[in-house]
Amino acid sequence: MTTLAQVVLLLTLLAEPLLALAVDLRPHLRAPRRAVGHGREAADDPRAAADLTVVVPLDGDVRELDRLAWLHDEGARVLLVTTGAQGPAFHRRLWAVAGEHGFRVHVAGTRRQPGAAQRARPGRTALLGDAHATLTSTYVVCVDPGTVISSPLRQVVGALAAAGLDVGTVTTAVAPHGLLARVQRVEDELAGRLRHRVPWLVRGGVHVARRAAHADLLRRHTRFGAGDDAELGVLGVARGLRVGHLDVAATGRGARSARDWWAERLTEVAGVVRLSLLHPHLGVRRPSLHLLPAAGAFALVPLLWWSVLHVPWVLVLVVVAHGALTAALTRGLRDPVAWLYPLYAVVRAFVLLPLGVLAYVVAAVRAGDAGTLRVRDPWWSADPADAPVVRRLPGPGPARATDWWAGRR
Questions:
Q1: E strand or H helix at 3, and its extent?
Q2: Do residues 334 and 189 make contact, with C-beta atoms less than 8 angstroms apart?
Q3: Residue of 280, 248, 301 lying closest to 10 (CA atoms)
């Protein structure tokens, strides 16, 4: 019985390609899958096309400014967001690029302190939150520098509106330059099917939202670092918003080195640790988030090690089967790296997951904050300026529509 249990545990490594295959075999997909097709009518409305802002967060890398030429046709609908903590060379180039393409600029901090007192580079989520001080459009399209969307942006916003979504996630693919980039491309292709079921499980680069919903989510965002992008989707679902995945092609730059690639993977896993292990109550209340299965993956790590030490031959069979399924599911890429992807999946399950737990603990200790999500405001906290106050009668005190006892707005 022990050997059988060990075999079964190792077979769980096939869960990713088997789930992707199950989704592939479903005859009908949800509305977000059809969102682009249904969004074209809304995208053709000139008012809808004009009522969007493209927000690009810039953290001070001058090279990022040279990757914005594809947004030239959007002109003043593009808002570049940075801080005053950057150097003079960056700001000179920033205003030159903005003037060349007609972009707007929002500087979230106006003073730069020299030496060790200079403020560290702000996080992407913090810059997006600061941008709402100037946003007035109905929709926002958030794009990282270096990421290119192939579809017209009005069509992307139309897709969101036609699908009836508040927040839309977009998978960002990478150009297949180098072995690691090709592995990441296979991973994105395989996981792309699951993201229609788990829309928050997506790498950053692009997301689309109604401005009011986006501002509400960023106001509650922990800005912890690890898991920032996924947190936006988890918060949206937990808040009762409609979050879905849009079939929009976007291409971003891959990691510049093997070290950067590993650091990105480790940060992603640390984010999943934070969101899944710290919030089991959200997984119970919102099964569609799939937080409990994600937490279960970390719990299985010691059992997987126990199994592979006793029946290592099963791992060989699992790798071969994983490779065959992955190659079949990603046959459109025609990339032999699909047969090597199972080796990365094994390293992720046996090494990356436990290291991700350690990385999260280190980050939490350094920050002095566990990064716990704040889905609802306590009744005693101050009312935001734009939040309606709902009086409960009979009974004392103001109760906002965002409180836990109130219905969804």
A1: helix 2-11
A2: no
A3: 301
Beta bridge partners of 252: 174
Q: Report the alpha-carbon distance of residue 241 to residue 408 in Å, rounded.
A: 9
Residue pair 190/15 in contact (Cβ under 8 Å)? The answer is: no
Number of alpha helices (DSSP H) and beta strands (DSSP E) in the chain:
19, 12
* Paired tokens of 196: 């229609």
338 secondary structure, DSSP code: G
Dihedral pair phi/psi, residue 267, rounded to 5°: -65, -40
Q: Is residue 112's pLDDT more than 50?
A: no
Q: In this predicted model, what pLDDT tens digit does every residue of 148-197 receive, in sequence order? A: 998 899 999 999 999 899 999 988 888 888 888 899 889 888 877 787 77
Instruction: Give me the amino acid identity at 378.
Output: P
303 burial (CB, 10 Å; 0-12 / 13-18 / 19+) is middle
Report yes or no: 193 and 219 within 8 Å, Cβ to Cβ: no
Across the beta sheet with 250-252, what order do the strands follow?
148-149, 250-252, 172-174
Q: What DSSP designation does 336 have?
A: G
pTM for this entry: 0.82
- Residue 83: which H helix or E strand, with range? none
Q: What percent of the chain has pLDDT over 90?
A: 44
**What integer is the mean pLDDT of 253-260?**
84
Return d(Cα 236, Cα 267) in angstroms, integer: 21
At residue 348, what is the residue type? R
Each residue's pLDDT tens digit, 326-358: 999 998 888 999 999 999 999 999 999 999 999
Rounded to whole angstroms, how far apart are CA atoms 64 and 163? Answer: 32
Tell whether the torsion through CA atoms of 211, 241, 15 and 249 is positive or negative. negative
Q: 298 Cβ partners below 8 Å, 6+ apart?
A: 273, 276, 277, 353, 354, 356, 357
Tokens read off for 137: 């459009």
**In 51-178, where does DSSP find H-type helix?**
62-65, 88-101, 124-131, 153-162
**Helices marked H in 193-227 — which ranges?**
211-220
Q: What is the DSSP letter of 349?
A: I
Region 129-152 average pLDDT: 91
DSSP 121: P
Do residues 253 and 63 lie in contact, with contact meaning Cβ atoms separated by under 8 Å?
no
Residue 211 Cα distances to 133, 139, 170, angstroms: 11, 5, 17
